[in-house]
Structure formats: C-alpha cells, structure tokens
Amino acid sequence: MLILFCLLCTTTTMAQQMVYVGPDQKNQKVIDRYNRCHFRVTLGQTLYRRKSKDFTAIFGVKTNSLMSNDDVEINFLKKWVDNPIYNDKEDRVYFVQIKNKTSDTIYIDRSRCFRTDSDGSKYCYYDPSKCVDTLSTQRMIAIPPHAKRNLTDYRWVKNKRSGYVEIVEYPEEFLWNLDAAGMYEGYVNYDEVKTFTENNSPYYRTFLIAYSKQADFATYSLATINFYIREIVGWRYPESIRENVKIVSESRLTGEDKYSITSWIPLY
Question: Which of 143, 151, 267 is nearest to 213 (CA)?
C-alpha cells in the first residue's frame, strides 16, 4: 500500500510541470507603491524620552519580489471592514488581490499557496479539514480574463451552539513575532523611528502564490513576494484614525494609504 501511494505521488508530480514566468516592465512600479510609505517626523520635533509600549511596523517589499508579470498582477490592499461582533467598530485588514492580465482563465490552487515568516511559522491557504457545510474552504479559484479575485474572502458564520460569530477565512493582518524580531519595551522611545534595509531587517514575510492557465495544473507558475519590516515606530496610530465612517486626516505616514502595509502591536 505504501509503495502504491508513493508511485501515485511520483506520477502526479511528474505530470505537473512548473514554468518560470519572469517579471514584466511594470513589476518594479508595483513594488515601489509599498516602499513609499514612511513615518513622517515633524521638523524640530523633540522625541519623548520614554520607553514606548506600542510598536508600529511599516513593511516594505524586497526588490526581488514578483508582483507583476505577463499573466498576473498581485497587490496587497488595505480595507476597513465591518466586524459583526463589535457593531460599532471596523477592522483594518489586507487582502491579497490577484488580477488576471490575460485573455484566458487563470486558476489559483490555494493548496499550493503559502505564507511563511522568518520565525519559522507557515500557513497554507487551503485547509482540507474545513470541508463541511458553511465552513468549507474553496481550494480552486477561477479568475476570468481581465478580472480580479482575492486570495481569501471575509466570511463570517453563526455558531448555533454558542451564538457567536466566527470568521472562516482570515484576511492578512501582518502581525509579527516580537521575540523572534528581538524587540522589547524600550526598543524605541515614543516618536522614535528605527529604519532597516532588505538585508538587516529583524523580520521577513514571504508569500508564494501558485497559478495556472489550466484547471488541472498540468503546468503552473509561482509568484514569490517578500515583505520585510522597514521601519519600527514608537507610536500607536501613525496612520489615519478611523472614527465611524469618516477618516480623520491625522496621518503621519507618507505614500498612498491603500498601499501602506502597517501593523501595530502593544506590549501590555
């Protein structure tokens, strides 16, 4: 039985072939959208010499990332979505949006799509254990020609037993492991900014997205996107504060808001 299983696996692997598709001329432009985000320090500003108990990380994209080629363009878009548990609040989340640039249908196999962090944690976008009723997670995503689809949805279901609302598919939150990144109270002061490069960043996150023009994935390609913490800010809310439906213009970040990847973590 074990030998037969191995033969089947080998046959399946041999039947499918990965085809490399390199970046197109737009790739660097897409990457640059995310690297324009910086924390804006007021001229003549005096830093608070108190240890900050709140860290905000600003993520950048490595230049070796593939976000655009002749087939697809991949973006990580910030959105505010209603939280059904707290009716008066909204969540700031990110969606991995995949645009089909071709005249063919593009298929995404979520069992081949992964997120990995430099602390060793891994996440697969398809969970075969959730295959019943409303908790089912779709493995294959079909993207029509010149259309867009998200890698994950934002779906909530009622738990009849307890009455709570549960989320089925999680969007991206870009949280990071403080211990793995070597951060602690006092790492920065309030309003202080620490800047890193692609090579000395304390934390990295990689996305691998598999796609094919064939439903059976006889041939497929991979897009690899590498994020890294580019700035650590000793500040709780450096971006726009959202109150109800209005955005209060108190942003301390440069760049385009929807392409600004940030995450806040408290130390208490």
Answer: 143
Q: Distance (Å, rounded) from C-alpha 250 to C-alpha 248?
A: 6
Element (H, E) at 241: strand 241-243
Cβ–Cβ under 8 Å, residues 248 and 137: no
DSSP letter at 146 equals T
Which residues, including other chains, have CB under 8 Å from residue 22's CB and lie 6 or more apart? 66, 69
Question: Rg of the chain's alpha carbons, rounded to an integer?
Answer: 21
Cα 39 to Cα 57: distance, rounded to the nearest angstrom = 10
Q: How many CB atoms lie within 10 A of CB 151?
A: 21
d(CA 226, CA 12): 29
What's 198's DSSP letter?
T
Helix ranges, the chain (H): 2-15, 27-35, 178-181
Q: How confident is the prediction along the chain (268 residues), in pLDDT tens digits per residue?
A: 433 334 334 344 446 899 999 999 999 999 999 999 998 876 656 666 788 888 899 999 999 999 999 999 999 998 887 777 766 566 778 999 999 999 999 999 999 999 999 999 999 999 777 655 444 568 999 999 999 999 998 877 777 776 667 777 878 989 999 999 999 888 998 888 999 999 999 999 999 999 999 999 999 999 999 999 999 998 766 655 444 444 444 567 888 888 999 998 887 6
